[in-house]
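Field log, afternoon session.

UNIT: design team B
ACTIVITY: writing a sequence onto a fixed backbone
BACKBONE:
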């Protein structure tokens, strides 16, 4: 179960126009380990501005914040301290519950995503080829419409 905040995201927005988002995943304990949970999240790399001299942008993926809900009769040692975060109890948008931030060991130190980007030096060539291709395809569409179209 998951909650995405905000619930509507423009995945086509470039990196410099994108807004931050929060993804809440509600995980169940692993059957083999009561204090373990496992999740995978697909990542969509956004378009970056063309760069000078490099063909990739480096994006640092931060380690997730792990929260423990002391609701649903799952009590552990962390539940005896004061709550640190108010967040929904479940993905159906129920009233907020009190969550605690237990000590956890991230899977790795720091993940860096290498996103391919265009070279700024190629921008005039890319613009010229895009304009040429657009004109050619528009001409083909108009020619086909004139030849095969039934205009009354």
């Amino acid at each position: 179960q998951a909650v995405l905040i905000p619930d509507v995201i423009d995945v086509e927005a470039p990196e410099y126009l994108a807004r931050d988002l929060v993804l809440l995943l509600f995980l169940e304990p692993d059957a083999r380990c009561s204090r373990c949970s496992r999740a995978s999240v697909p990542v969509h790399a956004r378009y970056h501005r063309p760069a000078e001299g490099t063909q990739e942008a480096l994006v640092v993926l931060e380690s997730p914040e792990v929260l423990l809900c002391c609701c649903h009769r799952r009590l552990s040692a962390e539940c005896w301290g004061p709550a640190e975060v108010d967040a929904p109890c479940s993905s159906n948008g129920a009233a907020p519950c009190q969550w605690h931030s237990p000590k956890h060991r991230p899977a790795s130190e720091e993940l860096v995503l290498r996103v391919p980007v265009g070279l700024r030096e190629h921008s005039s060539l890319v613009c010229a080829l895009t304009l040429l291709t657009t004109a050619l395809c528009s001409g083909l569409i108009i020619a086909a419409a004139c030849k095969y179209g039934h205009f009354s």
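LOG NOTE: The chain has a mean pLDDT of 79.
NEXT ACTIVITY: expression trials, pending approval
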